[in-house]
Amino acid sequence: MFSQVFTPLFAIVLTAAASAAPATTYTGTGKFPFNSSSKGRRLRISPATYYLPNGGTGACGTVLQNSDFILALGEGHWDDGAHCGETVTVGYNGASISVVVADRCPGCQGDNVDLSQGAMSALDPNWLNDGAISVQWTL
Questions:
Q1: C-alpha distances out from residue 101 to 1, 18, 48, 67, 139, Å
Q2: Most buried by CB count within 10 Å: which residue of 52, 57, 77, 115?
Q3: Phi and psi of 75, rounded to 5°?
Q4: Which region is the signal sequence (predicted)?
Q5: Which pLDDT value is given to residue 13?
Q6: What is the 3-state secondary structure (H, E, C) of 47-84?
Q7: What is the mean pLDDT of each run of 10 residues along the chain (139 residues)?
Q8: Cα(94)–Cα(58) distance, rounded to whole angstroms?
Q9: End-to-end CA gap in the chain
Q10: What homologous superfamily is domain 23-138 in, according to CATH?
Q11: CA–CA separation, 3 vs 45, rounded Å?
Q12: CA-to-CA distance for 125 and 56, rounded, in angstroms?
């Protein structure tokens, strides 16, 4: 009787704890795409949307094309451009790419990010229909 009550209750508590867990610091022991160069960085799982820079100048001061592999950080991670030029590994559904922080995303909340059309299409062949995907990334 105890195990019939305790086992489902334990499963519920574990599920709640996992969903409420904050982003963790990556220690370098996880699976690809995160490697030893990611040590000390926080692993984030968040929505990513796409944007079209259309040859405009990004917040980091460089001209950006839609085909570039770039990422725009939200206000919470922008840090006055401190991450401009950093390479970030972004993973989705078993695929991963390297992108460069090149812009700011004023509309991104929390850990959300924007990816250029080139980066988004490399991760998700159905990117145009999906619109937003849940990605893993470190910073």
A1: 55, 29, 14, 14, 10
A2: 115
A3: -55, -35
A4: 1-20
A5: 34
A6: EEEEECCCCCECCCCCECCCCCCEEEEEHHHHHHHCCC
A7: 41 34 35 48 87 96 97 93 95 94 93 94 91 90
A8: 29
A9: 47
A10: RlpA-like domain (2.40.40.10)
A11: 34
A12: 25
